[in-house]
Amino acid sequence: MEILKQGLNYVELAIDIVGLTVILIGFTKALWAFVRNELSQRDNEIAFWTRIRQVRCGLGTYLLLGLEFMIASDVIHSFTDPKLESLAELGAIVLVRTVIAYFLGQEISELHESE
C-alpha cells in the first residue's frame, strides 16, 4: 500500500509540474506577443486592440488548461491523504480553482465572440 501511495505522490507532482509548465509557456507566449504588439506600428487601432484581445484569449486558454491539470493533481492528493482536514482543504482549493476556471472560460468565450 505504501508503494502505491508513494507512486501516486510522484504522479501528483508530475501533474503539478505539467500544469505549471503549461501556465509558464502560455505566459511566455503572451508576453512575447504583447511586446511585439506594443512595438508594432499603430497605424490601425482596431487591429492593435484585436491583437490584444487575441493575446488575452491565448493566455486565458493556457491558464485554464494549467488549472485543470492542477485540479487533477489535487484530486489525486485526496487519495494519498484522506484525512478530514486534507479533504476540507482540497475541497476549498478545488472550489476556488473551479470558480476561477469557470469565469476564465466565460471571459475566453466572450473574447472569441467579440472577434
Polypeptide structure, described:
The protein is an all-alpha fold. The chain has one domain (2-114). Helix content is 91%, strand content 0%. It contains three helices and no strands. It has helices at residues 2-39, 45-80, 84-114. Helix 2 packs antiparallel against helix 3 (84-114). The longest helix has 38 residues, at 2-39. It is elongated, with a radius of gyration of 18 Å. It starts with a helix and ends with a helix. The mean pLDDT is 87.
Compact summary:
The protein has 115 residues and is mostly helical. The chain is 91% helix and 0% strand. The protein has one domain (2-114).
Instruction: Assign the structural class, choosing from mainly alpha, mainly beta, alpha/beta, alpha+beta, or little secondary structure.
Output: mainly alpha
The sequence of SSEs as H and E is HHH
Strand content: under 5%
Average pLDDT metric: 87
| Span between termini | 53 Å
Number of structurally distinct domains: 1
Number of distinct helices: 3
Helix content: over 70%
Q: Rg from C-alpha positions?
A: 18 Å
Which stretches are low in confidence, meaning pLDDT under 50 for 5 or more residues running?
Answer: none
Q: Count the strands? A: 0
